[in-house]
Each structure stands twice: as C-alpha cells, then as structure tokens.
Amino acid sequence: MVVTGGSRGIGAAVALKAAAAGYAVLVNYAGNAAAAGSVVERIRQAGGTADSVRGDVGSEADVEAIFAAADAMGPLSALINNAGVFDQPSLLADMTAERLERTFRINILGSFLCARAAARRMAQSRGGQGGSIVNLTSAAAKLGAGGENIDYAASKGAIDTFTIGLARELAADGVRVTAVRPGIIDTDIHASGGRPDRVAQMTPNLPMRRPGTADEVAEAILWLVSDSASYSTGTILDVSGGRAILP
Asked: A single Pfam family, by name (predicted)?
C-alpha cells in the first residue's frame, strides 16, 4: 500500500492500521522526514513492514520515484490518495494565482498522477492483479467553504467527480475506486492552514458536538480497501459526524 502524505494525521493513522492488517506500507512525505521515519519505526517495532520516501505528489518525476520505491516492496494492491494542502482563510478576491496553483497542483493533479501510476500497476488489462484506490475528499466539497477556503473546497469537489469517473473506468479491470469525505477532524492540518484553534471553534456547531479523529477516518479507509467492501466502487463515504448532510 502506498499512503501519500503518510507522515501525520489521517495518513499516519492509515499507515499504522494498514500495517497491522498485514500490508507492507510505503509512507510518502513531502518534507518532514523525522515524522515519516517515526511512523515507519512504529510499524517495524510492531513487526510490520514499512519504508518511507520523500516526494511532491504534484511533481510527475517525484510520483514516478514514489511508485518505483513501492515496486521494490512487491506488487501494489492499494493506494491511499491522502496528500493535500489547506491554506489560510481568504476571500477569492484576495487569493493569489500562486495559492490557487499550489492548491490545485497538489490536491487535484497530485491525486491524478498517483492514481495514474497505481492504475498502470494494478489494472488487470496491463498485467496487474487488481486493487483498490481510496481518494481523500472533504465535507467542504459539499459545503463550498465560501469566505474561508473556497479553493480547497473546489479541489475536493474535483476529487469527488474524479472518484466516480475513475471507478467507472477501472471497474472491469479489477480496480475499485472509492473515496472518504471527512468533516472536522482533529489533526494538525488546521494549524498548517493558519488556524490552530479551528477545531475548538467549530466543535459547538458540529451535529455530534465533537470533532472526528484520524483513527475514525482510517477505519473507514481500511474497510473500503478490504474484501468486506468488494462490491463497492464509485462510493464516497461521509465520515463527518453529520456535517456533510445538506438540507
């Protein structure tokens, strides 16, 4: 299994649970080698198999290097398209083209490039053994995030559409494509977007009156890649505590 953005938050939780379930896990990271190394070490200490590789998913060359490292670990059976960026709150009128380019390059192009690499390896028509791709979208894709992070929401809306289209494209090729749509999850992505107090501020307005955890999202992802979800493809599973329910 390749887990992009696997050094922290949801990605790290997925890597740990996947290794416990028997996967050899490749942890991709963009910059924090120590955090990725910590995840790998925890897996190895528990008797699992893991390695880490640096790479920007928005770079075609880096993506090829990531999957070459995965090839060295054995046949690919799962990709978790988790890497993404979340910027500071802003109105669209004040957003720079550089911000928009970065958000779409990593969140959209990165998911496409990684899924392409996975499809080339897993599709039965190309000599693969089948497999599963799980994309990470967001409740923001349904809510729009106007006045805050409309660029992030739009990038995740693209991932919703991508999931459905790729699921149809690969359904007869032994590859299932699904997505998880988290809501407010208590990870450090909020701090990286300049809002370290966002979870606490949002909690009173959440339907369940609490944020979700990375482990709760990881459990949903591991179910989607498992044989228990063998007849599910094109599915987008809300793990949002009711936040993504529209009137």
From this structure: adh_short_C2
